[in-house]
Amino acid sequence: MEDCRDPLLIVDGLSVTFDTPRGAVAAVRDVGFTLGREKLGIVGESGSGKSQTGRALLGLLARNGRMSARQHSFDGVDLLRAGEAERRALLGRRISMILQDPKFSLNPVMTVGEQIVEAFRVHAGLSRREAHDRALAMLEAVRIREPRYVFDAWPHEISGGMGQRVMIAMMMVPEPDLIIADEPTSALDVTVQLQVLALLDDMLARRGASLIFISHDLNLVASFCDRVLVMYAGRVVETLGAAELHAARHPYTRGLLACQPRVDGDGADLPTLHRDPAWAR
Amino acid sequence: MNPAASIEVTGLQVAFGRGRRAFHAVRHAGFSVEAGGSFGLVGESGSGKTTVLRALAGVLPPTAEVRGRMRMHGEPLETVRPRALRRRMQMVFQDPYGSLHPRHTVDRILGEPARVHGLDSIGSRIGEALTGVGLDVSFRFRYPHQLSGGQRQRIAIARALIIEPDVVLLDEPTSALDVSVQAEILNLLQRLRRERALTFVLVSHDLAVVSHMAEALVVMRAGEVVEMLDVAALRTAAPQHPYTRRLLRASRGYDRAAASEF
Amino acid sequence: MSAVRAWLLTDIPQSRGQAQCQRFFLAWLVFRKNGSAVAGLAIVAALVAGALLAPWITGSAGVTPDLGDRLRAPGLPHWFGTDELGRDIFDRVMWGSRITLYIVGLVSVIVVPVGLAIGVVAGYVGGWVDSALMRLTDVFLAFPRLILALAFVAALGPGLENAVLAIALTSWSPYARIARAEALTLRQSDFILAARSQGIPHLRIIVSHVAPMCISSVVVRLTLDMAGIILTAAGLGFLGLGAQPPTPEWGAMIALGREYLLDQWWVPAFPGLAILVVSLGFNLLGDGLRDVLDPKSRD
Questions:
Q1: What integer is the mean pLDDT of C146-155?
Q2: What is the C-alpha to C-alpha distance for residues A154 and A137, in angstroms, rounded to an integer?
Q3: Interchain contact A22–C (C-beta under 8 A)
Q4: C-chain residue closest to A23, CA distance
Q5: pTM as predicted
Q6: C49-98 tens-digit pLDDT
Q7: Left (φ > 0), alpha (ψ -120 to 50) or beta: where does C86 sit?
Q8: B194 CA: distance to closest CA in chain C (Å)
Q9: Contact with chain B for residue C198, Cβ under 8 A
Q10: B113 falls within a domain
Q11: Which of A42, B2, B61, B242 is deepest in the core (most CB within 10 A)?
């Protein structure tokens, strides 16, 4: 659970605005949270600002995006005051990001193994020989059955689940303290999704790292994370312990839970969500 | 032949390419759907479920080799088929961002099929089609990029229904949508099915959606049907095949213990 | 002004026409931000304006010799000076823009439909039709453009129309390739499958569903190629195989001015500068259009 004595990441009053031909659009509005050594889920529908929140934390907004915050500090370092070089060093070395589609995150003209070797050489300053051995060990650690085969494979030759395992391996190379995963398993089959999440879970536990897990899937997040932020229209409308999900109070969270079909449901019409404009205010 | 069957598929095989390099997307599939029924095809990626649906819709690429028999109301369904037969079976695609022509207005998207099939009073039909899927007539002259995902999927449903088919093939119709929008689309589909006595064939990876929508289903894996079951068996968690049980367990969310059994 | 803007940006267009206008306006808003593209557009607009306004902004048609006024340096009243026959070079450059525009227009009118039709049919139909059409394309692609154009003009006889025809015949093949590549990816896209499953006839799918999606990359490529086309036309003119004297074609002007390059530099320099600026304009415009139109660089 949240450990307030030693917060890893503190965010307060985070806002993200995009300039578009039709005027400025606020994507994230006054979001604040404190992250300890925990798995924090951010849940919301498309347009809720959950992905932009994750990107803003890493300074990865699109060119027409602007970010502002009252407070943004990582492990005691005030990122709002830090210089560009310091900020980038900190973010690059201690925070990693996993995106939805590994195909876009892997370099298509390098073999999988070379990319992990490269990461080891850049982040750990290892020799080629050492990096090679460590990369193979890493592929084994993410439970790839034939690491030698995958090492020599090109990104387009491996399946989505395999690709996401490789991404997790790459992200673990700099031994980050925080991983931000944006819909890391949404493109995967349900059974593969479970295996990839189990792997991520084990890797986090081994390194003692924290996780921000961004997803549209409320049930998945609640079953995987310790705590859940529910976002709507750029704001956090509710923060819940994962176990108390079914005691959610905000009508949006409750509506979201109710409108999902269930395997053991009766096939009757689903309750739909009636959006109250007051939620977005 | 079963006279009540709307759709009958027996011994269907689909392969892409020839000889040793051929890829067998569907190795063996067979099922039948009663007229007015709703039938689910469940499976993970590579199971061949979408290929079965595309074979039914007659939109496989020319390189595909199809064996076996597909019939609709007793009439054979070949890849090249008369326009009148196409009219009776329509398809709704998974990705509402990809299934509408980006340079055509809603007006043209709905009007073109109606015109091609020789229907009259196109203007009022477009209006009715829009209100039928819960959209205002003011949507008529918008481009797809001006619509949300849910609105696009409603347009795609309206496009399928404007030429008054008997059978609607649904390829993951809500997997690209938010859950709250999914609920609206699923309710809409159920209502349209009741009102127009439609027959549904629904492809999905989501057991909950299939359980909600269908009366019977087959579970596919690697191009083959592994189990055919009644939705009641699914709801009471009593499937026979271990693969179906695994899918069922995975659909309940993250469970570290379950993951290590896979 | 603001009423027009609101009409152009409303979420609820009331008619087909308004929806069309909106699409162009939003594209223009993107295009406008690209400084060099706007510069390119300005140059091309200046070319068009020069061609249209030539009778009013020039003192003569630039074809009548005035031997008393030979080889004057730039100044008043001859801004660009005069050539070896005493003709005003500014007037000749302005009238020459009509010829350039004529070449550009005629080549586009031939190349775009031919390339698009062959490419789209090959990509959409596939199979042996694709193989046959693409081998034909390869044959034309295999010849160097200027050499093939030279051969054509030699066979058909020198002249502007034949030069244009030669350029068009040698430059449609890349467009067919581009259109085919686009059509190949479109063929399996959901909206084409949707059209097929609805029983929409193949010809109609090709013309009104596939071709419109290929047009933008073809137009972008054409704009970027325009510089090359203008240079080829100028090259043919320079070799005496294009427009014949006294037509003020820029390439032919350079060819005649060559002898005066050292002492009367302005004779070849101004038509050369005109070619450079117009080629650059088309290139900048093409880059900007690619940013606006290329479906891959947009969502």
A1: 82
A2: 18
A3: yes
A4: C9
A5: 0.85
A6: 988 988 888 777 777 777 777 777 787 777 788 888 878 888 888 998 99
A7: left
A8: 23
A9: yes
A10: no
A11: A42
E strands, B17-63, in order: 23-34, 38-43
ipTM of the complex model: 0.90
Answer whether A43's CB lies under 8 Å from A245's CB. no
Q: What is the CATH number of the domain that holds A42?
A: 3.40.50.300
The reported pLDDT for the residue numbered A2 is 44
pLDDT tier at C144, thresholds 50, 70, 90: confident
The CATH number of whichever domain residue B13 belongs to comes to: 3.40.50.300
Domain that holds residue A267: 9-101+178-280
CB contact under 8 A, A189 and B259: no
| Residues of chain A contacting residue C29, judged by C-beta atoms under 8 Å apart | 21
pLDDT at B2: 55
Residue B32 β-bridge partners:
B8
pLDDT mean over B33-53: 92
Is A269 contained in some domain?
Answer: yes
3-state secondary structure of B98: coil
Alpha-carbon separation of residue B260 from A138, B239, C234 (angstroms): 19, 21, 73
Domain assignment present for A63: yes
Across the interface, whether the CB atoms of C190 and B102 are under 8 A apart is answered no
Identify the closest residue of chain B to A256 by CA–CA distance: B180
B146 inside domain: no
Domain count, chain B: 1
Q: Is C30's CB within 8 Å of A22's CB?
A: no
Phi, psi at B203, each rounded to 5°: -100, 130
Whether B152 is in a domain gets the answer: no
Nearest-Cα distance to chain B for A129, in Å, is 33
- Nearest Cα of chain B lies from the Cα of A31 at a distance, in angstroms, of 22
Please check whether residue B151 touches C, CB under 8 A. Answer: no
Domain count, chain A: 1
Q: Neighbouring chains of A at 3+ CB pairs within 8 Å?
A: B, C
Instruction: Select the residue from B16, B18, B59 to test the C interface by mutation, using most C Cβ atoms within 10 A.
Output: B59
